[in-house]
Write a structure and sequence with these properties.
The chain has about 180 residues and is α+β, with helices and mostly antiparallel strands. It is built from four helices and eight strands, in the order H-E-E-E-E-E-E-E-H-H-H-E. The chain has a three-stranded antiparallel beta sheet. A three-stranded mixed beta sheet has the order 5-6-8, with helices on one face. The N and C termini lie far apart (about 80 Å).
Length: about 180
């Protein structure tokens, strides 16, 4: 017993450690190509939210009490919405008149992402339930359907911003020009 006590004391009160961990990680990255883009960001959205996922084990279709797992993931990011600038068409429709055709609005990208696990609730028998994958939750937050919802719910402001942007662009050359717009979506 004295030997065990001495080993614990040496481990706790000195820099010498009997027990520990060792880890190693490596990362490699190769940039294969650079592609020039003509995307025009018209709107930037500040998105914040909390995503909840809950799972429970079942036996013969009946939920097992106390086997539940719940995870709450807080997220925050800036979403960039706009258009493919190379797909915008500007055509002269008459003397001093132009028609600007704006392509479908798109989710261009996101930045300043923060994802943080804020709470977990695991029942007494949760060992029988698979763990919740927070990476899968993040993927669900940023999936194509969600990106499309951000575009759809901001169509009016996207149209207004596209009109303002291209009106300034065209009238900078000639302030007397009349500019009309057509949206493909």
């Amino acid at each position: 017993m004295a030997v065990v006590g001495a080993l614990v004391a040496v481990d706790r009160f000195t820099d010498f450690s009997l027990f520990g961990t060792s880890s190693e990680s490596r990362s490699s990255q190769v940039i294969n190509s650079v592609t020039r883009e003509e995307q025009v960001v018209l709107v930037s959205l500040g998105i914040q939210g909390i995503d909840e996922e809950a799972v429970t084990s079942t036996v013969f279709g009946v939920e097992v009490p106390g086997s539940g797992r719940t995870t709450f993931l807080q997220y925050e990011f800036d979403a960039k919405l706009g258009i493919e600038g190379g797909d915008v068409e500007i055509e002269q429709t008459g003397e001093g008149q132009f028609l600007v055709t704006i392509p479908d609005f798109v989710f261009i990208g996101h930045d300043n992402e923060t994802f943080r696990l804020v709470a977990e609730d695991n029942g007494l028998l949760s060992f029988a339930t698979p763990e919740i994958d927070s990476a899968e939750m993040i993927t669900r937050i940023l999936n194509d359907d969600t990106k499309e919802q951000y575009v759809d719910s901001n169509l009016e402001i996207l149209r207004d911003q596209a009109e303002a942007f291209y009106s300034r662009l065209v009238t900078a050359v000639d302030p007397t020009v009349v500019v009309e717009f057509e949206f493909t979506r």
